[in-house]
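lol forgot to send this yesterday, sorry. struct tokens for the thing we talked abt
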């Protein structure tokens, strides 16, 4: 689950990390009032959407007066912000964040994430932070440094290596070490999967400031992070993803036209692979889990059919804990209730498979059965066309 910049900064401030004061605003009038409150000659207005690249897309603007702040807010609130991360669909800006401006001397990049290959929380840093960090990583990977922390967390020698990379020493190096340690505390205590500070700036008065902050929370840990769970912004979540989460379904939208309803992540991956192998394109990853009920299957069908790209559905179920007869009943109920008009191919194996197949055959619905994954993939690809 992603947090907005203003939410991330509120949290990081609790860990004694240096962030600039800001105010969340929903209207141009609120922006003007916030500018007057700060009583500073320069402020920065930032669109609050879950996407990077806001600056180049017009989602970050420097404003020099209350009147200008209000005028820019009128243009920004309600605009469709299109960045490389949003794609052509873009995102509608519904709220903005006004902060005091910062007298920047140098910009750096700093992030913490989980490196699964090293089984460690890893710090990624560069002395060249800012809007073009992706270009730096692609063209000059030697300028990116990675430090995989042990279970003890950041150590002195690692902080010294980072300080040398940033070209700072003495008191600045000491404060940089405190920032890294406090970021690590926030990361571990809040169950973050990512903290990205871009840029971390050094001001002309030699103060460190987290100018921008992006945080992502491990959704599997939200049961013990109720404060963070309450920060979820449903406007930023795909309605299909939101509905899937409420019914315990794992759903990820893709760009193809074959909807996949599968139980188990491994089987879901294999199903998508075999669709691709046969020349088709999956429209989604949808895992109903090992203990799905008939009602869950019905809701899964609703999610699949709400995607206008879906021109056919492949159901691939292996009944271990899950019984094939219950799944078949769910499929029949869903197909009848929703009036499924796209081709539907169903492959069942496992517990009570014969009973499940009988339920499907007696339903008088246009359901195409298949015994193997390859057969099922070939049938659905043929049905929707390549």
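and heres what i got for the seq, position by position
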């Amino acid at each position: 689950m992603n947090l907005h910049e203003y939410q991330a900064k509120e949290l990081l401030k609790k860990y004694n990390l240096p962030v600039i004061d800001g105010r969340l605003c929903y209207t141009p009038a609120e922006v003007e009032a916030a500018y007057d409150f700060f009583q500073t000659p320069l402020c920065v207005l930032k669109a609050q959407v879950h996407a990077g690249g806001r600056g180049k897309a017009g989602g970050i603007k420097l404003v020099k007066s209350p009147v200008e702040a209000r005028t820019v807010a009128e243009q920004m609130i309600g605009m469709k912000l299109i960045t490389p991360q949003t794609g052509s669909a873009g995102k509608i800006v519904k709220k903005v964040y006004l902060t005091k401006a910062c007298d920047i001397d140098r910009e750096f990049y700093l992030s913490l994430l989980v490196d699964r290959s090293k089984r460690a929380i890893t710090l990624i840093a560069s002395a060249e932070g800012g809007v073009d960090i992706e270009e730096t990583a692609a063209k000059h990977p030697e300028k990116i440094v990675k430090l995989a922390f042990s279970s003890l967390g950041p150590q002195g020698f690692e902080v010294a290596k980072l300080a040398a990379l940033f070209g700072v020493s003495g008191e600045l190096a000491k404060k940089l070490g405190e920032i890294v340690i406090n970021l690590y505390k926030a990361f571990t205590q809040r169950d973050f999967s990512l903290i990205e500070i871009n840029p971390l700036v050094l001001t002309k008065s030699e103060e460190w400031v987290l100018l921008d902050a992006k945080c992502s929370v491990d959704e599997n840990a939200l049961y013990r992070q109720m404060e963070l769970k309450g920060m979820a912004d449903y406007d930023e979540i795909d309605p299909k993803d939101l509905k899937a989460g409420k019914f315990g379904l794992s759903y990820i939208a893709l760009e193809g036209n074959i909807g996949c309803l599968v139980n188990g992540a491994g089987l879901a991956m294999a199903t998508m692979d075999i669709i691709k192998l046969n020349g088709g394109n999956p429209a989604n990853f949808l895992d109903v889990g090992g203990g799905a009920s008939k009602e869950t299957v019905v809701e899964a069908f609703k999610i699949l059919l709400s995607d206008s790209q879906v021109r056919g559905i492949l159901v691939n179920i292996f009944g271990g804990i899950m019984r094939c007869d219950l799944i078949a009943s769910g499929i029949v109920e869903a197909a009848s209730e929703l009036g499924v008009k796209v081709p539907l191919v169903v492959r069942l194996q496992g517990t009570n498979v014969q009973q499940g197949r009988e339920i499907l055959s007696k339903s008088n619905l246009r359901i195409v059965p298949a015994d193997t994954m390859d057969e099922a993939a070939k049938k659905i690809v043929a049905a929707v066309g390549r």
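DSSP finds 13 helices and 18 strands in the chain. anyway ping me if u want another try
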